[in-house]
Task: structure prediction
Amino acid sequence: MKKNTIKQLFFLATILVGFFAKAQQPDPPGQVKGNEKPKNEAYLFAHMTHNDYGRLYYSVSLDGLHWENLNNGKRVFEEYKGHPDICKGPDGKYYIAGNTGDDAKSINIWVSDDLITWKKHSDYTPDLKSTPDYSNALQRIGAPKLYYDEPSQKFIMTWHTPHLEGTKEDGERYWASQRTLYVLSKDLKTFEGTPNRLFDWDMGTIDVFIRKVGDSYYAVIKDETYPTLYWTTGKTIRIAKSKNLLGPYSLPQQSISPNFREAPMLIPSPDDKIWYMYYEQYPGVSYGLSIADNLNGPWYQASGYTFFSDWDKYSLPEKVRHGCMITISKKEYDSLVKKFDLTKKL
Result:
């Protein structure tokens, strides 16, 4: 075979390999094309970091897929401690819930007009042992989360509380005993009655948040039962569904994520037609992304957070940990970038 022919075949093979490699990796759906204006203009990821657990950091994105650190990777609000969760209220203000540790007695809430300056709004100290059918609750409050329900014109605040201590022989029973509790409030200053259990089924759940889409409420949960051949959904992200804010909720659907994932976050795509569900592979190993066109699924996992550009269909800054993602306006995005600056990549 002539040398020129061999070179031509090699060149053609290189082109075909490149073509098929790209063809095997379609870009995630949900992005806008050309001059089309996105319905969701920008996104904020409020999170902690691997080296500074429980403190507040920001990253932002314009497409919900590629995220950049703000403030050169430094804290954006020194007073905050907790597992960041931000909710926009009916007054247009933003509220963030946290606590100084799982053994703290109170949940702390701050308020902001612009996501830049936060002021203390209230503290809530739940009487955990007054929870109906949960008098054996331990004094532990994990990952408080907020959601404003327009039909009832009330906030619901959820968190997880266990009822069994871990032991040397079985440290896992502490986590399996976690149950999701909630309280309602009109203004996040006064709270209605005692805490209540959100689900009437008996299963370990943490990191639960609620969203209403259409006529249904969806509770996004982490199944906190340890995975085995007899409980294959353990330590995964799942969804339960109800027609009412307070339930009853269906048994959770099949797993959205692989095992040993937690801290789910849900955002709509820029064109508002697709859902992006992020979750952390712990302890701080990586982030996964599952995608669906409705919250009933089916879901598939995108390739990303590998730090190999050919494979990354989404990317987050290194060492980011638990938090929340919310949609923001381009104006708010610009204000955040102006205040904190995008972190320069090396």
